[in-house]
């Protein structure tokens, strides 16, 4: 499919996060290219607001997060952080609030009832890499690069580590965290940080193709499956099977499962119920 274009970049007072709805999915575009789409206090708030609205939008079955400019997201705004060094507490309260709200926003992505797909062009560093890792799926343009470079400036990427270590192997995560070096899109795919590598400039096409395929599914089933996936990951094997079996039984009792199985048996397209 041909992906819809992101909303055009407008003036500096344009929304920090632009939303465009398509057939069954939404594209959220980070829109502060001059600051490399850094996760400033305001950017986190803007993204959180859009995610909260999507959580209750029954018309959507997937979300794509893209960005304008040469960087997908350069992590936290270091100029903003430096500015708070002059606070009476040397910035401690601001830093604690910033980390808490950023962590909450990342967890909102994981808890969202529909899959979230990152479309990455350019660099995704530090909390920007965390944003990619927090998404359920990711497509990278061939020129995309990823890093957790905090170690290079005396600030270990501890919060990005949480999402990164849940996506890639321990040794790959430690390599990125301890060296701070950039990795390319192909290495990111090999490590499991991204699902696909698209030609440069076509990450949004690939992400929207994912979203369109997912949008054809039952929203109830997507919500059930996504929640169960993350819940069972934190459990031991026996507990995970017990939990998954309970989820499966409840899913079997749902109208959409009855409809989907019936449609398969009758060789017709299912008609999903909004949920």
UniProtKB/TrEMBL annotation:
One of its GO terms (biological process) is fatty acid metabolic process. Gene3D superfamilies: 2-enoyl-CoA Hydratase, Chain A, domain 1, Lyase 2-enoyl-coa Hydratase, Chain A, domain 2. One of its GO terms (molecular function) is hydro-lyase activity. Pfam families: ECH_1. Keywords: Fatty acid metabolism, Lipid metabolism, Transit peptide. Transmembrane segments: none annotated. NCBIfam families: PRK08139.1 (NF006008). Belongs to the enoyl-CoA hydratase/isomerase family. PANTHER family: ENOYL-COA HYDRATASE DOMAIN-CONTAINING PROTEIN 3, MITOCHONDRIAL, PTHR43602. May play a role in fatty acid biosynthesis and insulin sensitivity. This is Enoyl-CoA hydratase domain-containing protein 3, mitochondrial. It comes from Camelimonas lactis.
